[in-house]
Amino acid sequence: MEVEPTQLKVALIPGTGRIGSRLARRLALANVSVFIGSRSPQKGLQGAHDILASCPHGRVQGGSNQEAAAWGDTIFWNPSGSLEEREELLQSLASHLENKVIIDVTNVMYFFDESQWGQTSSVLLNQKALGVPARWTTAFKATFYKFFDDLPDPNDPQCTFVAGDDEEAIQRTVALVEVIPGFKAIKAGGLANSKIIELLGPRWLFELDTLNAGGNYRSGWKYVW
Ligand SMILES: NC(=O)c1ccc[n+]([C@@H]2O[C@H](COP(=O)([O-])OP(=O)(O)OC[C@H]3O[C@@H](n4cnc5c(N)ncnc54)[C@H](OP(=O)(O)O)[C@@H]3O)[C@@H](O)[C@H]2O)c1
């Protein structure tokens, strides 16, 4: 099953934050059609304008999160805010997101105490909160945003773990990861494995980065076989 990423309509909800804006720009540079969502339509439009300034031939639009959710066939889900605020946003978009592919970039483990680590994951909580079926996957959960400013060496790529329960959604996610130079998608099994994947994310990665890499936020994972 071959997926051509330039045929996809990729909405970033939102496409304005540290990771969302950079993902949007990198996808636009790879000629993927993108929509910059935001709680503020003006901010979404401005985000699109900013990307077009450095990517004049990009297929980039911007507006509200609602417009983004309605337009996209594939969604990158990357809001910040509290758990409740994220869930509220998700539920407000449910009618547009039903059966779509949603690539979850979010992390929540730092909201929980140690007794809950590994018991659930952001994407599993989101899947439940959405309340309608969608095809969720994971990507870039443990990728510091700085990597998108100064890309990894394609000969020595950064890995990101792609989990999901729908094969076509996984293929789309792999294609979108690998359209960005310097990234390799590692198939990571079913969505339940997100409980493991999210433990590799910010909390421990920050600690490792501080202990070993001088806190420069350019450390990450490689899967070797
Ligand atoms: N930063 C990283 O390196 C990195 C790496 C991997 C994963 N992540 C994960 O990606 C997610 C976003 O991180 P980020 O660093 O990009 O965050 P961020 O810079 O704070 O941006 C996230 C965006 O979320 C929206 N937002 C803020 N508060 C909100 C609320 N209360 N309800 C709904 N939307 C809200 C804002 O967009 P609008 O104002 O336009 O709506 C904001 O631009 C987090 O879950 C984080 O763990 C981040």
From TrEMBL:
Gene3D superfamilies: NAD(P)-binding Rossmann-like Domain. Residues 9-107 form the Pyrroline-5-carboxylate reductase catalytic N-terminal domain. The keyword Oxidoreductase applies. SUPFAM superfamilies: NAD(P)-binding Rossmann-fold domains. InterPro entries: NAD(P)-bd_dom_sf (IPR036291), P5C_Rdtase_cat_N (IPR028939), STEAP_metalloreductase (IPR051267). GO terms for molecular function: oxidoreductase activity. Pfam families: F420_oxidored. Keywords: Oxidoreductase. PANTHER family: DUDULIN-RELATED (PTHR14239). This is Pyrroline-5-carboxylate reductase catalytic N-terminal domain-containing protein. The lineage of its organism: Eukaryota, Viridiplantae, Streptophyta, Embryophyta, Tracheophyta.
